[in-house]
Amino acid sequence: MNDHAGLRGRDLALVLVVVATWALNFLTSARALQEIPPILFTALRFGLLALPLAFFVRRPPRAQVPRLLAVSLCIGVVHFSLSFLALKLSGDLASPAIVMQSYVPITTLLAWWWLGERVGWRTGLAILVSFAGILVLGLDPRMLARPQAMATMLASALALSVGTVLMKGLRGIDLFTQQGWMAMASVLPLLALSLWLEPGALATLPQASALAWFGAAYAAFASSLLGHGLYYRLVQRHPVAQVTPWLLLVPVFAITLGVAFWGDRPGPRVLFGGAMVLGGVLAIALRAGVRQRALPPAEEL
Question: Averaged over 182-197, what is the pLDDT?
Fold first, then answer.
């Protein structure tokens, strides 16, 4: 592992590919959600992802199966379905992309409470700044008009945080095995939830356009397989703390795409609150890097 050179040349290009891939996923998913209900869309995403990964997954250690299923439930079922629902409810790309980053301070607090990990005063201050930024963002007129969107995204971030803390206890499971089992374990619960909460959703699939299906395929193959594959290749070559700060460009790119292609017009509270959230997250990531236990990244939808 290269500890001092930092990201340059090819590796810098690769991390920018990850950032662009995850940012574009907000746009393609938002377009697909205009035609496919969010829980069903999540099921499609994991169904498509499970197809290639089924050939690479290994049998997890028996003792790890309950924890792996709990991680799959928290992240695969609850987090992703709520995040796509929030994206649909919000009507823009900026606020979901920013609020999603709240999972970092939430995870830090959960690790302190649940695992007894130490949280210094600088990290505590960064957490306060992040949450204050969410409050500022929530006062934006567009967010005040759609409070359910922010509440849903915060619930999604909480589910991701719980899954992340549980994930820290997984042993002997590689990336493809973890992603493969999560995909396979999530499909049936998501389909059941869709049948219950989204009556008639399956009937919409034959009428879904090529763009909607492209959104599901992009979420599965580009965002998950390509994005996470490149990310883990990078952290094998560099300290995690050198890579994760670059991922804060994802919401910046997503906001830019929203303005350029989705008609977003983020107000000053969104931009100022977003800067507070991302600044707090950056400070947490840098402090974690000092202790060499940086948080894993959120998969951007």
Answer: 96
